[in-house]
Every structure is written in structure tokens, then in C-alpha cells.
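Homework help board

Subject: predicted structure for assignment chain

Our instructor gave us this sequence and asked us to write out the predicted structure in C-alpha cell form, then describe one feature. I got the C-alpha cells but I'm not sure how to describe them. Can anyone check?
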Amino acid sequence: MPRNYFKLPSWFEEWNAKRPTDVYGPGIIVGIVGSVLFVFAAIVILGQPFATDSLQSGPRGTGMSRAEFVSDLATPDPDIEELYEDEPFVPQGDEVLAKDIYENVQVLGDLTEDNFLRLMNAITLWVAPEEGCAYCHAEDDIEEYGNDSLYTKVVSRRMIEMTQNINAFWDGHVSANKEVGVTCFTCHRGNPVPSDIWYNNVPVNQAAAGWSANQNRATRNSQSTSLPSDALQEFFINNETIAVHDLESRVPGVPGRDLPSIQNTERTYSLMNHFANSLGVNCVFCHNSRAFYEGSEVTPQWSTASLGIAMVQELNNDYLLPLEGILPESRLGAIHGDVPKVSCKTCHKGYQQPLQGENVIADWPELQTTETPVYE
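My C-alpha cell output:
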């Protein structure tokens, strides 16, 4: 008699004996158990899809940490794939300089011809890959590239100076933890006009009601909230003090003169909301949740952000506002005809660091300094 090497579980034999016609019950039980085992095995093999990782942003033991999904942290900024690398040519000392070859080279004239053309090619890819050289030089012959007939060339020259200034004097912000730097690509990402620029948009819906204190109007500048829409204008252009009203009640002083006004307090909240959306973080990235207004208990990121505020104020006032009269009407704001301006989101675009901290300046010593670059 053949030996039976396969024996069904006793509960299954008992079930069949008592319910010979019920074939669905065991199948359902086996299916449920099998599905649970399959899901468990998938989690072990593929990883927990909702697993989180935390970044400590303040002193230990204070609960100052920010949790993010591991899957989000592992997802790179898609623009990183478009980064362009091209090692510089180390000058030997006997090369002819760009300013001695080409006409009207007001910036980058101390570069060798190889490095000058190398950087011009990179700027074309960073800013106007579809338009090419004609974006700044029209359809002129190369002998006529020295003409300043197009506003784009005049603006580009100023933007190169702005980029050099950022890398040379604001490295405490852009390279706070390691060398990162900025190039034209940091903001432009292959577009002639960067995304996330902004214009002055107040008063908003002026005819709709009385004085609204520039509030309760859902605009991009207020992050679609009821907070004041003029926070970027007041803080990044007019250099208004970023502060909140006194935490104590009935303190002596006049709001707006001795104390921040209630409206400026709400502008501050609007700006903080802008920070959070620009960097993809929350309040405790810079502040101690147990002592929001205690300057001695903020995180190291608070200092980096403070430098960023000062940097944006300088970029807007010294480099962008002076472009009024150079930019055509099509590049100006619809309400006030003002020039486009930058904010935190223009570079960060929702990430804690632009391009997630990729070192974009390594191959471009020409953009690291306002003086003659040093090649190594």
C-alpha cells in the first residue's frame, strides 16, 4: 500500500467531514492567511512604504525633529538629471584673454578663450537651450556679438555679476554645510524666465470692499491664505522689520512705532508660511517649538535663513530693481509694471537645499568670484 507523504491539516479534514459540500470556507481562510503572509513578505523584501526618517533640528531631548517619508527623501529632484558638468581648462599663462579677442566683454574678460566659450555654452544650456546663442545675440554674425542690441544680453551680463556676488559673498548661506554654490541653472532650470518669481500684487481687488489691510485675498504671494499679500514686498524690498507684536498684554508703546503693528505681525506669519512652502519644511526647522520667540534657543538653520533673507533683499534691490527701463513690458508685472523679483522659492523650489544640495559650482570657478578666477 503506497505511503501518503502529504497530509492535510486536521482542522481541514474535520471541516470536510462535517461540511462535505462547503468548499468556499476553507478557500476563504487559506486566501486570507496567504494574503497576510504575502503582504508581510512584501514589506520585508521591498521595504515599508510609509516608513519615516527624522532629522534632528535642535538640541537633543527637546523633541525638535522633523519627520519625512523615507520614500520622499529617496526621490531626487528631477532637475538634477539636467545638471551640466564641464571641467575647466587650467590656464598655462600664455593664452590670449577673451577681452583681447572679442568686443565689449565687460564681464568675464579675464578668462581664456577656451574657458570663456565653455561658460557661454553652459549659460546657453542653463537659460535658453531652445533659443541658443540667438537669445542674447540675435541672428548676428559672430563678429557682431559685441552688440548690446538685445535687452537679454544686457540683463544676462548683470545676472552673471549677481551669481558671482552670491558665491563670493553669501557662501555662508548657499554653502553653509558644504560647497554647493549657485549657477544660472539653480534658478532658471532651462527656462529664460525662472519659475517662482514674483511681482507686487497689492492692492488686490481694490474695488471689492473698503480698506482690506491687503488681507483676505488668496494670492500666490500669500500662499493662497488670508494673510497679507504684501509680505514679500515689505520684507524683501522695503526691508521692513520681521517681528511679531509683544507677547505680553497691555505693554506700553504704540503699535507701528514702538512695537510691531498687528498687520506687520501677520505679515511675518505670511513670510514664515512662504519659508515653509519654499523649503518643504515646518516651523521647528528653524524655531524651538517650546520657545518660539527666544533667540538663544533657535536652531542652526535659523542663522542660515537669516542670511538668506539679507541676501534676497540685496539681490532684489541691487540687481533686479535697477533693471526697470531695460526689461520690456512683456516681462513686467501686470498691476504695477514692476520688474520680476526673487524669493526663497525661486532657488529652493520646495527643497531644503536647491537641487537637494548638489555641488553645482565645482566646475565653474569663473562664477565663484568677482575677481580673476583661480583654477586648480
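Reply (TA_rk): Your C-alpha cells look well-formed. For the description, you could write something like this. Residues 329 and 337 are 7 Å apart (CA to CA). That's the kind of observation they're looking for.
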